[in-house]
Amino acid sequence: MADRTLSPRTRRFLSADALFKLLRNRFEAVQDDRKDANVTYPLVDVMMSALAMFVFKDPSLLAFEDRKDDPSLKSIFNIKKIPSDSQMREILDPVDVEHLNEAFADIFAELQRGGVLKSFRYLDGGYLLAIDGTGFFSSSKICCPSCLVKKSKDGKTKYAHQGVAAVLIHPERSEVIPLAIEPIIKQDGETKNDCERNATRRLLKRIKKQHPKLKLTVTEDGLASNAPHIADLEEFGYHYILGAKPGDHKHLFDQVIDAGDDSQLHSIRTAKIDQKGSYRETQWAKQLPLNKSNPDVLVNYVGQADLTSDGNIKSMFSWVTDHAVTRATVLQIAAGGRCRWRIENETFNTLKNQGYNFEHNYGHGTQNLSTVLMLLMMLAFLIDQVQQACCPLFQAVLSKLGSRRSLWFRLRSAVDSFIFRSYREILEALLSDRCRYRFLPP
């Protein structure tokens, strides 16, 4: 019997094992178009096998195939037969990605049920949603009909898959909660702006459909602070905090200067933000035209600079927002704008640099394989973020081992050497060192 004193309780339906079951239920609804009724590998088993590969952070499909007879994986993920790498690619390639996007909403509903999202509340009881684009495949040789095709100035052709992700963030939380991911498709446009804008509109539409009552403040980089995108956000009923740079918004910043001349540029100073005596100055002005082309699009401006003790600028940020900006709200708005970087640091950088192998080509296929695998990896990442946010046992093991990479390595080592019935059993064994410091039987 496991020593329960070592494993502080978490909400049962938010444990990794419960979320694996939740995803299995979702995957069972995915249509399998294979004509052979007596298939060797049911689609749900193949999808759960791929999820297992990303949960344990196997560096490649071939590495995962070496453990396809592992009884622990079969037990933890309720899989009867794990396919080979080529079989997995072939079976997953035609899968419709819609059900995978619905799976994010399934987990979100469990987080709401468990009250976990209360600590993510932001302005006016809503949530802060960061949106940004990223690439998850690039090659000069491998391609499929769905690939984005780009030609460089020297005439070389690059093939790529990209997507736009939306994650819940909070200035005081290190965890992020992926809400939805929208692939950028070949028909989205020829320029980066058009591609991301069209995909982002579909993403917003998806989020509104899945979460019609969710109050959101969307935060994005300076490419998003344009009139058509602001119109989209307003159409869906979302607030916004969007980056704005002087070089890209000259007319707006001219208006900021004029507001200062007319004593309409307000300011707050935050003293001693570090031990060296640095301080922070936050400014705001209300109802300024976004640009000359759209004088009727009025936005509130917020700027924030960190300065050394002798007044030299260390860093400077600026945003446009539709939130009411007052002395009572401006610092919270600025904090929301500044923590937009969590989608880069805690999401994309974590996926690329902390053992998830986000940019590794697990398989490209000819239809949807690359996107299907990316979404399954993001679901595994979401499960890890939920565990980090609300599972004391996972938190204790991560603290003990010191890094995510160490945790993933020890997870793989444990299932290579011992048989487990659940993910929780592995964590308990790692916390108690039951997988180490044992003599072999004589």
Cα end-to-end separation: 24 Å
The CATH topology of the largest domain comes to Transposase Inhibitor Protein From Tn5, Chain A, domain 1
Determine and state the CATH class of the largest domain.
Alpha Beta
Biggest sheet, open or closed, and with what strands and sense?
10 strands, mixed
Estimated radius of gyration: 24 Å
- List the uncertain runs: 1-8
The general outline is globular
Give the mean pLDDT: 91
| Strand/helix succession | HHHHHHEEEEHEHEHEEEEHHHHHH
Can you count the helices?
Answer: 15
Query: How many domain regions?
Result: 2
Fourth-level CATH superfamily of the largest domain? Transposase Inhibitor Protein From Tn5, Chain A, domain 1
The secondary structure category is alpha+beta
- Strands, count: 10
Domain Transposase IS4-like: 150-381
Organism: Allorhodopirellula solitaria
GO biological process, one term: DNA transposition
GO molecular function: DNA binding; transposase activity
